[in-house]
Write a structure and sequence with these properties.
Elements lengths: L1 H23 L10 H12 L6 H5 L3 E3 L18 H17 L3 H22 L22 H18 L16 H18 L5 E2 L2 E2 H11 L10 E3 L21 E3 L1 H9 L4 H5 L4 H5 L19 H9 L10 H4 L6 E4 L1 H13 L7 H19 L9 H8 L11 H14 L8 H9 L20 H6 L1 H12 L14
Antiparallel strand pairs: 1-5, 2-3, 4-6
Helix pairs in contact: 2-4, 4-5, 5-6, 5-7, 6-7, 7-8, 14-15, 14-17, 17-18
């Protein structure tokens, strides 16, 4: 009897332990999932508008209620927040490999390249080869040189392009509705953008920049129309509305910068009416929208209180067009557009990286941007007609067929700048650092920064590796005006 009871007790204990294991397997924690569920959130996060910081830095808007650090080039620490997105991307790639779907792997590699590109431009050297290894116990990753990071980005984009399979579905795709060919075009086009960022370099880890650019260009399958824009289309539903919708900052003490407004006025560019509001005094006088003199911007280097006491008090300064914060769908946000690619190809032609027609690429870019606004700001279509665009492109200070290479580059970069209001994040600022075009006004005391200071968390949690990176790049000075590799 005792033996029987002992066996019974042991059986009950075994079943209890077995049941306990089942209980400890949390049903709310999913070990496996389809990558489509991850892709939707990853794409949505990546394609959001990056906000006003880049607009302040790029001399498009100014602040009159306080001194804005981005406007006055006094910013400090940046953020490693993109590594949180990269963790999700790593999981998507793992799940894609589990179900043997190469398209999700390819898209994951694209997003890896996208975020590492942004991180490296923000800081310089960053954790790359040892990043995202927390599950293996490495919570203090070493830093890779910026050159090595860019070489890795270029190689990952090559790998991504080779993995796209037109016979595999891409469910959960809110950007291209499951079209693998369009993702391939984005991957190739983004690789051209990365390579053009390195226009000041001949090589990166043995990769010849101009030759690699021509190779990708000859490969074809590039973004070739507005329909292929890498853009997020917003809808009037909770959590799906335009990123800047209902932002109170636009309606308070934020105004247009003279740098941006004066350039549009000088070129008689009707995109001014889409981006800016008339001054309040011009509105009270019922001046027509197309009156360029009814728009005005403030000096981005002037004291904010002085602007407030003069231009604001006199009603002689323009605000950002209200459609950006009152319309829940406004316009799609592009992380890479057809017009940007055409500007890149125009610049590459002028630099003699490719054999093509710079004037045609330049004209394609300008026409595409006007068409984009015709499609998404229809109330202004009367100012954006093809007849107007023809006239616009015929102006002597806009036409591209000139002999001077620097003039060509300035005009291409100027048009690229004019297309970038709340589009493309920090691209226009990095283009300025890279080329000097168009001219950004600043004071000798506050020259344009070239990078961000590393995050405080890195100082606290990854001290040794961070200090090595700062010493190897900047002789120990983690400053915003230190020159990173890509600008040397």
């Amino acid at each position: 009897m005792k033996k029987y009871l002992s066996v019974l007790v042991m059986a009950l204990l075994f079943n209890a332990c077995h049941n306990l294991d089942e209980i400890n397997d949390n049903p709310n924690y999913v070990n496996e999932t389809h990558p489509q569920l991850l892709l939707t959130e990853i794409a949505s996060n990546a394609f959001q508008v990056e906000g006003t910081r880049a607009l302040y830095a790029s001399r498009m808007i100014i602040q009159t209620g306080e001194e804005n650090n981005y406007q006055f080039y006094k910013w400090g620490n940046g953020s490693f927040a993109p590594y949180n997105e990269l963790r999700q991307i790593t999981k998507m790639i793992e799940e894609a490999q589990r179900i043997e779907n190469s398209n999700y792997v390819a898209i994951g590699k694209f997003f890896r390249a996208y975020y590492f590109y942004k991180l490296s431009l923000s800081f310089g050297d960053i954790p790359y080869s040892e990043a995202l290894a927390g599950e293996t116990g490495n919570y203090q990753p070493g830093y890779d040189s910026q050159e090595r990071v860019f070489a890795g980005i270029i190689n990952e984009l090559d790998e991504a392009a080779g993995l796209i399979n037109n016979n595999e579905t891409i469910d959960g795709d809110i950007i291209y509705n499951g079209n693998p060919t369009n993702w391939l075009k984005l991957i190739n086009s983004f690789q051209l953008k990365v390579l053009m960022t390195l226009s000041g370099k001949e090589q990166v880890e043995g990769i010849n920049i101009s030759e690699k650019f021509n190779e990708v260009y000859q490969r074809g399958n590039l973004i070739n129309s507005l329909d292929e824009n890498a853009q997020l289309v917003f809808v009037d539903q909770q959590d799906s509305r335009y990123t800047e919708f209902n932002s109170s900052s636009y309606a308070s003490s934020m105004f247009m910068s003279a740098t941006f407004v004066d350039l549009l006025k000088e070129l008689k560019d009707n995109r001014l009416f889409i981006i800016a509001e008339q001054t309040s005094s011009a509105t009270s006088e019922a001046k027509p929208i197309e009156d360029f003199e009814s728009y005005n911007g403030g000096d981005p280097t002037a004291n904010y209180s002085l602007i407030s006491e003069t231009l604001v008090a006199d009603g002689n300064i323009s605000k950002v067009n209200a459609r950006y914060y009152t319309n829940p769908t406004t316009e799609p946000h592009n992380i890479l557009s057809y017009w940007e690619i055409e500007c890149i190809l125009a610049e590459a032609t002028v630099r003699e990286w490719i054999n093509s027609d710079a004037s045609q690429h330049y004209e394609n870019a300008v026409r595409a941007n006007f068409e984009f606004y015709r499609n998404h700001a229809e109330e202004y279509n009367m100012y954006l007609s093809e007849a107007y665009v023809n006239q616009y492109l015929s102006q002597e200070n806009i036409k591209l067929p000139v002999a001077d290479k620097e003039v060509l580059l300035e005009r291409i970069l100027t048009q690229k700048y004019l297309t970038s209001f709340l589009q493309g994040g920090w691209t226009q600022y990095y283009d300025y650092l890279r080329t000097g075009y168009p001219y950004f006004k600043f004071t000798n005391a506050n020259t344009p920064p070239k990078r961000f200071v590393y995050p405080n968390d890195e100082y606290n949690n990854n001290t040794r590796n961070l200090e090595e990176a700062i010493n190897s790049q900047f002789n120990g000075n983690d400053g915003i005006r230190e020159t990173p590799w890509w600008l040397n």
